[in-house]
Design brief:
Structural class: alpha+beta
Oligomer: single chain
CATH architecture of the largest domain: 4-Layer Sandwich
Strand order of the largest sheet: 2-1-14-3-4-5-6-7
CATH superfamily of the largest domain: Carbon-nitrogen hydrolase
Number of strands: 16
Length: 401
Amino acid sequence: MRGATWVISFLAVGVATCVARPAQLAPPRDNGSAKAARVCATDSALSSIDWHLKPSEALAAVDRSLNQLEQLVHRAGASGCDALALPEDTLGLLNWEMGNKALMNEVLPPAVARMLERLGRAAAAHRMYLICSSDVSERDGSYRNTAFFLDRDGKEIGRYHKVHPTVSESDRVRGATFPVFETSDLGGVGMLICYDMVMPEAARSLALAGADIIFLPTMGGAVTAGDEEMNRAAFRTRAVDNFVYLVIAQRGGGSMIISPQGKVLAEGRRAGDIAIAEIDPLGGREGGDAHNVQRDMRARLFRERNPEAYGILTDPNPPVLSKIPATITVEEAVRIFAGTLTTGEERFAKAESLLRAGKSEAAARAFEELRAEFPGTWIDRSAGERLARIRADAKSQNRSR
């Protein structure tokens, strides 16, 4: 049954199935007691928690979010999932955090504890592994973007701290390792978070440490330029580069499961879909060239490396830095990121309202201010599009007079 795939609609309107063709190169190796596992990924389809809320109100909103997430976990469990990955910022607290940094210690510790307890209990009811994600607050006031791995009893096996926060997330403490958690039925399990996948070294580090499956809670893709086709290709490349299964739970839709040979085994098309694929965690890695084929291509791939030649990969100041422009400062990036998720969204909505009301001059001033205050963001790009439209309309009206 390896390769059977499902997508379960959030609207529960039906189930689509397909079966991937078996590998052509060689039969899978004999894995002894290894069994097929049904792995799943989903976008929770939750709304972000309003940043205007007081801490007590934010925690009440967390409880409401957990009500929905528990239902989602039970849906996945009822479908026979052995492991379910939920997206980055599972609780939807990010916007609230950005508007309430001084109050995060009042909300994050109890919110994360409730998430692990309630979702762990829901997953345990189905004997299902669970991967979820949240920022965590440390006693010293620092915080980290963290993914959690819960066992079939709902207990935490381990956690991973994001190693590659974006420049906008630089107020979070970086992780320093890529842990792999060995299981009896999924093999070696590794986790990455969002921007980690843009760095090829992250997936390779997990693969070299023995990961058979990488779970990726994310809000974004595996590239920082290009279109959706490019992003999809990058995800597939990360999987086949390392001959690992890649289970992507992407907020906003686009969750998917990719085989070690780079095949998309299952994909969620809409928010709330659950992508499901039945896999052999220790198989599906046939590969090679015209002269040598392996049942598990890692047997060659990781022995034919030449680590002595890779020193530049760990050089903190490689020569390229002397020929590329300086980036935005960390302080400015953090300010812009927080503002974009809070006041920026609200001000953009007000500017849009002015435009719809026919108050073009006032809307143009508002969009110009937004571009100046939030450079390089979606607000900057969208405001620029609106300004171009306003100016084009003004020219058209002048010509018609």
